[in-house]
Specification:
elongated, DUF350 domain-containing protein, DUF350, about 85% helix, transmembrane helix, membrane, about 140 residues
């Protein structure tokens, strides 16, 4: 019984961090789909664009990698929240880099379901997430 209570002693922190992570992901999704000039959900829902699904999936994965690193390395929930916001900004910067510097016709290519454009956006998003997570160590 002592072992079980010891294991469950971390449950409140788990719940706080996990709930905060889910809130961050929902906020990220809410903002991300408004920052992008195309409607990912409409393109995905109507099964019109595998490319939009790949690009959005990469953005989610990249962001989740970064907030996972923040959760693992944060000293408290406030520290985690600050780095969760930094990770979100980094993902928006990754999108801007691809859209304005690497692939200026990104919007049209995603709307036209050109998979290579979605793949490069997804890869950049995940790469930024991995780098962000790695940089969050103290």
């Amino acid at each position: 019984m002592d072992m079980l209570s010891g294991l469950l002693s971390g449950l409140p922190n788990f719940l706080i961090y996990f709930a905060t992570s889910l809130i961050f992901v929902l906020v990220f999704k809410f903002i991300y789909v408004r920052v992008t000039p195309y409607d990912e959900w409409a393109l995905i829902k109507d099964q019109k664009s595998v490319t939009a699904a790949v690009a959005l999936g990469g953005a989610f994965l990249g962001y989740c990698l970064a907030i996972a690193g923040a959760a693992k390395n944060s000293v408290d929930i406030v520290d985690f929240a600050v780095w969760g916001i930094v990770a979100m900004v980094a993902q928006f910067i990754a999108f801007a880099i691809v859209r304005f510097l690497l692939l200026k016709e990104l919007t049209e290519r995603i709307e036209n379901d050109e998979l290579p454009a979605g793949i490069i956006l997804a890869v950049v998003s995940v790469s930024i997430g991995v780098l962000n997570a790695a940089c969050l160590t103290y």
